[in-house]
Here is the input.
Amino acid sequence: MAKQNELKVTLIKSLNGRRTSHKACVHGLGLRRIRHSVVVSDTPENRGMINKVSYLLQVEEV
Here is the structure.
C-alpha cells in the first residue's frame, strides 16, 4: 500500500476580522496561532479547507 502524501501547513496571517467560516477552516486544520505548523494528510477535504483560506497559509509538501 502506498504511503499517503502529507502537507505541512503554517498559519502566516492573523485570524482577526476574518469570516467565521474561514476561522473554522483554520481550526479544522489544527492551527492555533501565527507561525504554528501542522502536518496533515493530502485529502480532498483538507485541500478544500486549504484552498479556502490559502491567503492565510503557507503550504509545503512533506
User: Anything to note?
Assistant: The mean pLDDT is 94. The chain has one domain: 6-61. The two ends are 18 Å apart (CA to CA).
